[in-house]
Amino acid sequence: MMHPWAVFLERADARRCLVDAGEMGLDEAFAGLVPAFEAIMDYDICNTCGAAPCVDPSFCESCRRADAVRKKIRPLARLLFLRRLLADDISLERAWRELQPRATATAAVREAA
Ligand SMILES: [Zn+2]
User: Fold this and answer.
1) Minimal CA–CA distance to 36: which of 67, 68, 62, 4?
2) Cβ contacts of 54 within 8 Å, gap of 6 or more
3) Cα(96) to centroid of ligand 1, in Å?
4) How many domains are contained in the chain?
5) How far apart are CA 51 and CA 43, in angstroms?
6) pLDDT at position 38
7) How far apart are CA 63 and CA 4, in angstroms?
8) Residue pLDDT, tens place only, 7-34
9) 100: CA distance to ligand 1 center in Å?
C-alpha cells in the first residue's frame, strides 16, 4: 500500500499532466488537490471561521447552533406571517402593503414625511 503522501504526489503529477495537455485548467487542477491535501494532513478546518484549527471552537459551535435554529424558524415565521395576512380582518390593501419589500415601505414613509 502506498503512503498517502505518495498517493497525493501521484495525483498532483497526474493533474499536472492534464494541465500540460490542456485537458484541465490550472484552477480546477489545484482546487481538486486541496481536499486531498487537507485529508492527508489531517487539517481540521473550521467551516464556520475558516481557520485551522478553529480559533474559538465554543463560539463557532454557538454560531452553528444559532444558524441551525434560524434556518428552522425563518420558514415557520414566514408561514405564520402569510397566514396572518389571510385573516378576515386584514384588508387587501394592508396585505399588499405588508408584502411589499422594505425599501418600498421606507420610500413611502420618506415621501409621507
Ligand atoms: Zn471556528
Assistant:
1) 4
2) 44, 46, 48, 60
3) 42
4) 1
5) 10
6) 80
7) 34
8) 899 999 999 999 999 999 999 999 999 8
9) 37
Question: Is residue 54, in this structure, part of any structural domain at all?
Answer: no
Domain membership of residue 34 as a residue range = 1-43
pTM of the full predicted structure?
A: 0.39
What is the Cα–Cα distance from 105 to 12, expressed in whole angstroms? 55
51-33-2-20 Cα dihedral, nearest 10 degrees: -150
The pLDDT value recorded for residue 33 is 92
Q: Is the residue at 10 inside a domain?
A: yes
CA angle 52, 32, 37 (to 5 degrees): 40
Q: How far is the CA of 57 from the centre of ligand 1 (A)?
A: 5
pLDDT score, position 22: 95
Stretches in the chain below the pLDDT threshold 70: 102-113
Sequence-ordered alpha helix ranges (H) in the chain: 4-20, 26-41, 57-85, 92-99, 102-112
Residue 35 lies in a domain: yes
CA of 71 to the centre of ligand 1 (A): 19
